[in-house]
């Protein structure tokens, strides 16, 4: 019989510890210490309590825990000395049925890994959905992680141990994240569509109005109809719009959604998570035959990434009346104009102005998004409440000095443009760090016609500056520009800057942020507030209505815009539950 929260909360300390036996390999002390936080509100509460215990433990205790785990397909498996839990997991992953060649390869990796790190390779082999990784996925992960920095790899081992414990706890409670699994599956199935040149390599790239992009739109629209949306359309810019009607006519509408285009060779969850989480919530309402006192409008925005054309936020921009006619004449790498691409896709350009939403008819906009960063992952917290989307400014810059012979020009007589940029790079790293949540990046750096034996006379570079408030961003910009001038003066250089993009910060509306906080707290998950360093569709909707976002923890140190981008179906389930809670809050407020 499956364990229940009531049983666990009511049991004496010894019995409760026994009930949670086996979650952490040969380490019952973690559960025993976490049980001091009873009563638990939820399974998520238990999971975080145990993660917190380990976070506060000594370094030696952490190493002892890692070393208590068996090697994959190692000696313990061969001698049948694995715990029952480890036997089950390695069997499901097919590691008990390896070919001699596979076993030899794993033995070699185990030996190399142990020599490098001093502890066994730990991987949650049942994977982000709990259904099990393939042997090929396990091998690829093993081969990739063996090159990690030791401190990073130790943290990665502990994160995988927490995931193993999470899955084992699910088993004890007979729990399945049903909605999270479906959201995870939708994203996997959508990722089968990819642009030519990438699909053949097994890479995910979906850029605006390609065949793969249009296939994604069709698939999302079909799923929306299947789960119970009353109206579904693909609008004049390619947004997929699903509407679930209110209990009464004339009610206001809650707007939500995110984008379904991707960067080149990107991840499966960026943007798309924010489409499928509210879809799962609408599916719940439809199955229950339930209507709310407001309409729900879910939009899969057609374009956010600016990959094929420079018209970034084209999808959400159209909803706020920010579609510029001059965009239609932009050309992609193949010389196809945006106008031609839209006409080829069957979109009605003349209808674009009609897409602008009347904010008086809307309650506000909320968006769920994968974090795209390492913070939640490092803290072992599944959800984060976004306080603001950072304001940003991007520049294309150049330092101009004098190209000269690298062998005959004395060091004190050089006008080295690249050295000037190097000095600036160190300054912006220090300057952004003073603000805590500000970030500054030189992402592109080029020495035109550079040569190994020539002092660089020119150096072109980019600047990407972001901060939670416009004032904070502008102060950083001013300081960096002043430093650029000072470096130029000291080094005998000239410089130029060209502002290529400037976006205002989008602070979360307090009342909407509070609703997310109420939802997360009700789930027994700790409240963690954080700014968003990345831009999102919410920052466009912010121009006409209140908005707030919820972040979901990513795996692999939260990496995004990368094939390794991932999250678990358990965390996706929590985001569905939080979204559902927000819907219930709004329904009560409307009564």
* Individual helix count: 21
Overall shape: globular
- Beta fraction of the residues? 15-25%
Distance between the termini: 41 Å
> Radius of gyration, Cα only, in angstroms?
26 Å
| Average of pLDDT | 95
Number of strands: 16
Describe the secondary structure blueprint for this structure.
Blueprint: H1 5-10, H2 13-19, H3 29-34, H4 43-55, H5 59-67, H6 75-78, H7 84-92, H8 100-117, H9 135-145, H10 150-173, H11 178-190, H12 211-227, E1 231-234, E2 240-244, E3 253-259, H13 273-288, E4 295-301, H14 314-319, H15 338-344, E5 362-370, H16 375-379, E6 383-389, E7 391-400, E8 404-405, H17 417-433, E9 439-441, E10 445-446, E11 454-455, E12 458-467, H18 470-491, E13 494-503, E14 506-507, H19 510-522, E15 529-532, H20 537-541, E16 547-552, H21 569-590
Parallel strand pairs: 3-4, 3-5, 5-16, 6-15
Antiparallel strand pairs: 1-2, 2-4, 6-14, 6-16, 7-12, 7-13, 8-11, 9-12, 10-12
Helix pairs in contact: 4-10, 11-13, 11-21, 13-21, 17-18, 19-21
Structure description:
The structure is a single chain. This protein is of the alpha+beta class and 591 residues long. The protein is built from 21 helices and 16 strands. The strands form three sheets. Strands 1, 2, 3, 4, 5, 6, 14, 15 and 16 form a nine-stranded mixed beta sheet that branches. It is globular.
Short description:
The chain is an alpha+beta fold and 591 residues long. Helices cover 42% and strands 15% of the residues. It contains 21 helices and 16 strands.
